[in-house]
Amino acid sequence: MTHTRRPFGLALAVFLAMATGTAIHSAAADREATEEEQGFLDAAMDGDVQLVKKFLEKGVDVNATYDEDGINALMQAAAGSHVEVVKVLLAAGAAVDTKDSEGMTAFLVAVDACGNIHGDVEVEEPYWEVMRLLAGAGADVNAKNGEGQTAMAIAQSYDDQRARGVLAELGAK
Q1: d(Cα 122, Cα 60) in Å, to the nearest integer?
Q2: What is the pTM of this model?
Q3: How many CA atoms lie within 13 A of 72 on its CB side?
Q4: Which of 43, 73, 84, 134 could bond 48 through an S-S bridge, CB–CB 3.0 to 4.6 Å?
């Protein structure tokens, strides 16, 4: 299985991986996830709360990544708007402001993913809940990605008025 770079953001890569049943890995990584970490990360991507809990009970590092790209379970859960998985990961001590190789945090990933699907309130609401959970856990709502974009700038690029409202409510500028 191969890992593709995220030219359009983590959200698109996760969406495509979920749609095709393909896991995200890197063939060129110096350090790849162990089999258990891989299963844990995939469970977070799939929104499988019970399996995520089982891996955590077995001692899998809540901040494990697939490889040197730094994509972790919290980012995967945020990209898929898996609210319950986000809650479990935060309760287990997931680092909220860890950045991947493109400077994306879980909060920025949630905003980017929400922007990719904006227009359908029912679909967007779980992303807003993820943003609120992450902000409540101390995520920097004004962090910048590798391109210098804040969450508000990402939401503006999608012309997503409702997401901008949620971000403003959380103190994003």
Answers
A1: 33
A2: 0.82
A3: 24
A4: 43
For the chain, domain boundaries:
10-169
In this structure, what token pair is assigned to residue 92? 């287990």
Closest alpha carbon to 8 in 132, 124, 154: 154
Structure tokens at 142: 């004004």
How confident is residue 21, by pLDDT bands cut at 50, 70 and 90?
very low
Residue 101: what pLDDT?
94
Which CATH architecture is the domain 10-169 placed in? Alpha Horseshoe (1.25)
Query: Token digits for 77?
Result: 């859960």
CA distances from 140 to 26, 53, 98, 125 (A): 28, 26, 10, 20
- How deeply is 99 buried, as exposed, middle or buried, from its count of CB atoms within 10 A (0-12, 13-18, 19+)? middle
Q: Is the pLDDT of residue 15 over 60?
A: no
pLDDT recorded at residue 33: 85
pLDDT tens, position by position, 99-147: 999 999 999 999 999 988 766 778 889 999 999 999 999 999 999 999 9
CA pair distance 48, 50, nearest whole angstrom: 6
Burial 145-164 (b: 16+ CB within 10 A, else e): beeebbbbbbbbebebeebb
35, with CB counted inside 10 A (0-12, 13-18, 19+), is exposed
